[in-house]
């Protein structure tokens, strides 16, 4: 269908939709069944069977399976079946770990998917872009991704960047007029918006004419879907470490086998023991466990209202040393309320808070009504030059759109003005707000055909463009005294932490030019709105916690410098001698010059998004790891350049979200603090189970090596080695990944990003604990075997049980960098249950008679257990009181 050739009415008819009503829920459901979800077909996920079989592709596991096959052929059926069962169980554990990681990542993709504004059943609502169906009425604004192929029905200076589709990098101006030509290429279909393209300017309303694979983007989807999973830096580091550990483990295992054969042990027995030891000792599952730990941590972050888009951000969060945060909405509640007006040269006060439409107007103590000169006009102009809507949900008013626009609607309602007034006016042209212009303008035509311009924006931008002003007597020329009076009013409001917004008008003739350069000059200044966006209650304590964690908080805002200072002081961001830099000062500084003063600067006021990039670069030049927040499309470069890009989930544009690595679902600064805390904890938990796994593996190898060096019989048989690996490496290691943060996690300085995995004494702890675990296991074997030389199975059972118990006790020691006694073991009930379940698996093979011949075990008495527990606790007791 050549939608670009049809006028709006024809498109509506063909799609059975009315623009001013939208689709009904029933129509939406029917069309979803007909067309499916609005998604591009992606690369097929690996099947569950293949994922399961993948668990057995490791070379050492394949060798072990071959060895068990040989064992079966030689008649060692019991050992062969037992080893096969253990390998299968290990495979299932690995499968479920990978499946959980994949599911977590899929959920992340869904959570961070772009949203779309759709008009359904007479009201605007936000839905995931995958929920959009053919016939939906959608609204797109600057910074959005177009959610589907759309026939534009109404355009306000809309421009889209379509390089992903056409290769053309320059934005394309769009309109709603039909194109009466055949065979028009995509780049020339200027009344169409295409799925995945970026809105760089303006806004528009359109009808969805194609979704999913039935879009222009769908036709080239094959170029976009073959994405590979990118490993995080930590996963890469551990994969490299794993290769080194494999070589070391194989060397030591080979040494054990050679020594055993030299001492007269059967070659077959030593070969099978060696392979079993290698399988148990090589931490081939370490990268998979890291992925699971990262994804579990990410799930916890989601519960704390932070969506991680890139797993590598979890590692970087723990290194953050500076947070550059927007003020509005992030540090404040984003519930703008007009508290004061400056009109006719007088300061008026407005009662009422938040989005409550009850409130009154006062001049000193005198209550005002709509008869006060110019008051009704000022508030009406604020309603007309506005893109927000007021909605009622559960008896409360909510703002759909920009909070500043919402504040203008609420204050107009306080005077009794309603949306009905807007129906008497038609918007002829809109010049959207952007961060460079710092103003928004609309050309309005009333019911009599008279036209006028309304402009709202920063006072320092509108005042120089104004030639006239309104006073109590009417319109008059704006002189220096009047300008000074307005500037003083701006200063007074800013001192009270009020954000100021000016509004001005200009009468137009029917044939006047609609060029921006003509429209936005010789304005008539009407008045000022003074708005309060109160700081969030939890932000002050979050900033203090960040300070204790060695993280600096820097406020960045487009507001007046006095407003910025007032809020920064309330939140304890600005110290007594801290610097405040304004946008005009930043313009004069190079990155190198800014670098010299940036360590003493805590507030940046009147800045543009372009300044943010300079701020990020200056902090990075000083060696900081920078977290940068943003919401607008122009924030994307700074967010991308920062080490941790943070976008706003509520107010953020799709482009900013895509550039970021972290999305705040509640746009709240305190959520950044929680995410950093969680990021630090995830990294520490990964260190914990690296410490646990490797110390356990060192102990397993050394007990066999020491036994061979001392010319002793095998203290562990292959099936026991594999069972130890199964019961100790699986659940307890995973449970460590769920450990809560230590109490001092936010009292440490940020981690150095170049820090190695074994930094801060971790390597020493692994070696020392591993050696002692090996020694106590061998002691248990020697003591028992020497007293009962005819009962090798008894000695092996003691060694097997001691090794398991030493590891299960050691896991609690791994929970803290300090000592085992610094934490309550019952804080992590997952770990307690994991240890109990592992213990039960050991007791079953010791005491259940049908399993004793399979696992070469025998029942133990109370005295045996006293010896086992005494020896098992020795590594933890020896090192329990020390940090080293």
UniProtKB/TrEMBL annotation:
One of its GO terms (molecular function) is ATP hydrolysis activity. GO terms for cellular component: plasma membrane. GO terms for biological process: intracellular potassium ion homeostasis; intracellular sodium ion homeostasis; potassium ion import across plasma membrane; proton transmembrane transport; sodium ion export across plasma membrane. PROSITE patterns: ATPASE_E1_E2 (PS00154). Keywords: ATP-binding, Cell membrane, Ion transport, Magnesium, Membrane, Nucleotide-binding, Phosphoprotein, Translocase, Transmembrane, Transmembrane helix, Transport. The keyword Phosphoprotein applies. The chain crosses the membrane at residues 56-74, 244-264, 270-296, 689-714, 720-738, 766-786, 792-809, 830-848, 860-881. InterPro entries: ATPase_P-typ_cation-transptr_C (IPR006068), ATPase_P-typ_cation-transptr_N (IPR004014), ATPase_P-typ_cyto_dom_N (IPR023299), ATPase_P-typ_P_site (IPR018303), ATPase_P-typ_TM_dom_sf (IPR023298), ATPase_P-typ_transduc_dom_A_sf (IPR008250), ATPase_P-type_domA (IPR059000), Cation_transp_ATPase_P-type (IPR050510). Gene3D superfamilies: Calcium-transporting ATPase, cytoplasmic domain N, Calcium-transporting ATPase, cytoplasmic transduction domain A, Calcium-transporting ATPase, transmembrane domain, HAD superfamily/HAD-like. NCBIfam families: ATPase-IIA1_Ca, ATPase_P-type. It catalyses: Ca(2+)(in) + ATP + H2O = Ca(2+)(out) + ADP + phosphate + H(+). It is a multi-pass membrane protein. Belongs to the cation transport ATPase (P-type) (TC 3.A.3) family. Type IIA subfamily. It is found in: Cell membrane. This is Calcium-translocating P-type ATPase, SERCA-type. Residues 2-76 form the Cation-transporting P-type ATPase N-terminal domain. PANTHER family: CATION TRANSPORTING ATPASE (PTHR43294:SF21), SODIUM/POTASSIUM-TRANSPORTING ATPASE SUBUNIT ALPHA (PTHR43294).
């Amino acid at each position: 269908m050549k939608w670009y050739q049809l006028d709006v009415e024809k498109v509506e008819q063909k799609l059975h939709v009315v623009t001013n009503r939208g689709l009904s829920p029933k129509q939406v459901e029917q069309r979803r069944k007909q067309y499916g979800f609005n998604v591009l077909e992606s690369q097929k996920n690996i099947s569950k069977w293949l994922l399961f079989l993948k668990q057995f592709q490791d070379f050492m596991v394949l060798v072990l399976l071959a060895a068990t096959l040989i064992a079966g052929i030689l008649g060692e059926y019991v050992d062969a079946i037992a080893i096969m069962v253990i390998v299968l169980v290990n495979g299932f554990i690995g499968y479920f770990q990978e499946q959980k990681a994949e599911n977590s990542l899929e959920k992340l993709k869904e959570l961070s998917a772009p949203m779309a504004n759709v008009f359904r059943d007479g009201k605007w609502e936000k839905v995931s872009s995958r929920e959009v169906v053919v016939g939906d009425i959608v609204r797109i604004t600057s910074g959005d991704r177009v959610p589907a192929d759309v026939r534009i029905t109404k355009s306000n200076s809309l421009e889209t960047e379509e390089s992903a589709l056409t290769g053309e990098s320059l934005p394309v101006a769009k309109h709603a007029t039909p194109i009466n030509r055949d065979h028009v290429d995509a780049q020339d279909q200027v009344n169409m918006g295409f799925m995945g393209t970026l809105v760089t300017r303006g806004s528009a309303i359109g009808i969805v004419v194609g979704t999913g694979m039935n879009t222009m983007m769908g036709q080239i989807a094959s170029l976009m879907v073959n994405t590979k999973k990118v490993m995080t830096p930590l996963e890469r580091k551990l994969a490299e470490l794993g290769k080194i550990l494999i070589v070391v483990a194989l060397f030591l295992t080979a040494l054990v086998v050679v020594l055993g054969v030299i001492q007269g042990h059967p070659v077959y027995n030593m070969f099978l023991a060696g392979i079993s030891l290698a399988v148990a000792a090589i931490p081939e599952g370490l990268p998979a466990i890291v992925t699971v730990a990262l994804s579990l941590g990410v799930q916890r972050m989601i519960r704390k209202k932070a969506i991680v888009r890139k797993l590598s951000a979890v590692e970087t969060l723990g290194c953050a040393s500076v947070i550059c945060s927007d003020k509005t909405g992030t540090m404040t509640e984003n519930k703008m309320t007009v508290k004061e007006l400056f009109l006719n040269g007088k300061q008026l006060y407005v009662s009422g808070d938040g989005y409550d439409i009850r409130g009154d107007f006062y001049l000193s103590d005198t209550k005002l009504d709509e008869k006060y000169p110019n008051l009704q006009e000022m508030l009406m102009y604020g309603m007309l030059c506005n893109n927000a809507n007021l909605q009622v949900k559960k008896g409360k008013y909510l703002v759909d759109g920009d909070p500043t626009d919402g504040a203008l609607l609420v204050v107009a309602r306080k005077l009794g003005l309603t949306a009905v007034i807007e129906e008497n006016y038609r918007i002829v042209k809109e010049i959207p707000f952007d961060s460079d212009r710092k103003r928004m303008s609309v050309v309005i035509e009333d019911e009599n055909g008279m036209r006028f311009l309304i402009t709202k924006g920063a006072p320092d931008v509108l005042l120089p463009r104004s030639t006239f002003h309104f006073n109590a007597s009417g319109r008059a020329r704006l002189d220096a005294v009047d300008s000074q009076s307005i500037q003083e009013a701006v200063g007074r409001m800013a001192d009270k932490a009020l954000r100021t917004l000016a509004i001005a008008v200009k009468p137009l003739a029917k044939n006047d030019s609609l060029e921006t350069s003509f429209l936005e000059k010789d304005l008539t200044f009407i008045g000022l709105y003074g708005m309060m966006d109160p700081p969030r209650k939890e932000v002050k304590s979050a900033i203090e916690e960040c300070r204790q964690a060695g993280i600096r908080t820097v406020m960045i805002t487009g507001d007046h410098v006095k407003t910025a200072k007032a809020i920064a002081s309330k939140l304890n961001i600005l110290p007594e001698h801290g610097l405040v830099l304004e946008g005009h000062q930043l313009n004069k500084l190079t990155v190198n010059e800014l670098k010299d003063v940036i360590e003493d600067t805590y507030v940046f006021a009147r800045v543009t998004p372009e300044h943010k990039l300079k701020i990020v670069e200056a902090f990075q030049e000083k060696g900081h790891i920078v977290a940068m927040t943003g919401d607008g499309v122009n924030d994307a470069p700074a967010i991308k350049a920062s080490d941790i890009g943070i976008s706003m989930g509520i107010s953020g544009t799709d482009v900013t979200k895509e550039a970021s690595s972290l999305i705040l679902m509640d746009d709240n600064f305190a959520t950044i603090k929680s995410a950093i805390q969680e990021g630090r904890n995830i990294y520490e938990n990964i260190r914990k189970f690296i410490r646990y796994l490797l110390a356990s593996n060192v102990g397993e190898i050394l007990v066999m090596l020491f036994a061979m060096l001392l010319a002793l019989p095998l203290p562990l048989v292959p099936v026991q080695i594999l069972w130890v690996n199964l019961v100790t490496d699986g659940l307890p290691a995973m449970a460590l990944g769920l450990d809560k943060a230590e109490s001092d996690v936010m009292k440490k300085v940020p981690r150095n990003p170049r820090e190695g995995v074994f930094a801060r004494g971790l390597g020493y702890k692994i070696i020392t604990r591993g050696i002692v675990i090996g020694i106590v296991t061998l002691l248990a074997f020697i003591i028992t075997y020497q007293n009962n030389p005819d009962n090798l199975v008894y000695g092996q059972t003691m060694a097997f049980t001691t090794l398991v118990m030493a590891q299960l006790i050691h896991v609690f020691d791994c929970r803290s960098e300090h000592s085992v006694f610094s934490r309550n073991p019952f804080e992590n009930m997952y770990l307690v249950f994991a240890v109990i379940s592992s213990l039960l698996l050991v007791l079953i093979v010791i005491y259940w008679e049908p399993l004793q011949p399979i696992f070469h075990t025998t029942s133990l008495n109370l005295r045996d257990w006293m010896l086992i527990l005494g020896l098992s606790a020795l590594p933890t007791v020896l090192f329990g009181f020390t940090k080293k």
